[in-house]
Specification:
This protein has one helix and seven strands. Strand 5 and strand 6 form a beta hairpin. The N and C termini lie far apart (44 Å).
């Protein structure tokens, strides 16, 4: 098991344990559960953002005893009567679900939903 120290900007810190074969996404989910935060972005001590959830911790350069910062991402939800859209500050896309004919399927315009700044 590998132990990694994760801190929120508030100073609240957790030491997380997970197998050395874990991926960045595993660490992110564990941090989100530990801090009871829905969306966190992990940043290394040298400022590298861990963006690829499928990347192994080893490939990301994460080692036993490393210190990471967890940044909480702001979220917004917009809704119609039958569909929803979720936007994450710091994310690069919109996630939609619900009735396809009422906006719940954005697959046809997925490429246009990059770099979104806000939803209403």
């Amino acid at each position: 098991m590998m132990k990694i120290n994760v801190a929120l900007p508030s100073g609240r810190t957790k030491t997380l344990s997970l197998p050395e074969s874990s991926e960045v996404g595993d660490l992110q989910v564990l941090a989100q559960k530990s801090f009871l935060q829905g969306f966190l972005r992990l940043v290394t001590a040298n400022g590298q953002m861990l963006l690829d959830p499928m990347q192994s911790l080893q490939a990301a350069g994460i080692h036993e005893g490393d210190n990471l910062t967890a940044l909480a991402l702001q979220t917004r939800i917009a809704a119609t009567r039958r569909a929803f859209a979720l936007w994450r500050s710091g994310g690069d896309s919109i996630i939609t679900w619900g009735n396809r004919s009422h906006g719940g399927d954005s697959s046809a315009v997925r490429d246009q939903l990059r770099g979104v700044q806000q939803v209403h």
